[in-house]
C-alpha cells in the first residue's frame, strides 16, 4: 500500500504516513519483498505498534507489517515452541499453558508481538523474553535467512545486540514442563493484576521509561508530581505514572514533548536521567 497512514497500526493511535506498507504472506514472501527493494530503501518492521512512537511526519521507505501475517506457531517434536514474529505475546503464553509448559505466563502481560519482544528483550511481572529463547531466525536487508543461537547475542535489560539491517522473523522457545491448570491460573492472575495497575483501556505505548537500577520509573515520575500532567492531548496516566495516554486527540508531537518534559523534571528534581523504553522514529511534521 502506498502512502498509508500509520496511526491505525500503533497502540498510541498516532503517526504520520508511510511511503509504503507491506503485509507479507509469510517469511518467504518477506524475503522476496526485501530482495525487490532498491538498495537504499529504508525498512521498518512493525508488529502491534506498541513501545513505538511514530512521529507526525511519518516514515520514509517501506514498513513491513507482521501482525496477522507472520503468525505461525507450533510445538515441535523436541517440545520446543517455534513462533513467528507476528504472533502476539499473549497467544504464546496461552499456547504454552495449553501444552503444559510453565514459565512463559509473563508473556501474557506484554502488549506486543514476539518480533518486538525479541528485539528489546521485553519483560513483565519479573520475566524476560530471552530467558526462554534457544535460537532465532532472522532476515537481513538482502532477504537472506539466518539462524543463530541465543548465545550469539548480547542481551541485557530491555536491550539486545542486533545489527541495523537484520530483523527477527521467528524464534525457538525452550519452556520447561509444568502444570496446565497452574499456568492458566497464573495467566489469569497476571492479567487481573495488569488490569488493576495499568491503563489498559486507553491508547498508550506501554511503559515509556526503563526502570533505573534500584528504583522504578513510575515511582520517580509520581514523586515529581507529574501524575495527570498534560501537554495537548497527551497525559501522564493517573493509574500508572510510566504510561502516557492519548486522551483522544493527541499528536505524536504532544506525546514526544511530554516524554521530554517528564525526563527533564525527573532529572531536575530527583537527579535521575530516565531512559526511554519507547522507540521514537520517523520525521517531524513539516511546518
Automatic annotation (TrEMBL):
Name recorded for this polypeptide: UDP-N-acetylenolpyruvoylglucosamine reductase
Native source organism of the sequence: Cycloclasticus zancles 78-ME
Annotated pathway: Cell wall biogenesis; peptidoglycan biosynthesis
A single MF term (Gene Ontology): UDP-N-acetylmuramate dehydrogenase activity
InterPro entries: FAD-bd_PCMH, FAD-bd_PCMH-like_sf, FAD-bd_PCMH_sub1, FAD-bd_PCMH_sub2, MurB, MurB_C, MurB_C_sf, Oxid_FAD_bind_N
Catalytic residues in the record: 158, 207, 277
Compartments where located: Cytoplasm
Known role: Cell wall formation.
EC number(s) stated in the UniProt entry for this protein: 1.3.1.98
GO biological process, one term: peptidoglycan biosynthetic process
Catalysis: reaction(s): UDP-N-acetyl-alpha-D-muramate + NADP(+) = UDP-N-acetyl-3-O-(1-carboxyvinyl)-alpha-D-glucosamine + NADPH + H(+)
Keywords noted in UniProt: Cell cycle, Cell division, Cell shape, Cell wall biogenesis/degradation, Cytoplasm, FAD, Flavoprotein, NADP, Oxidoreductase, Peptidoglycan synthesis
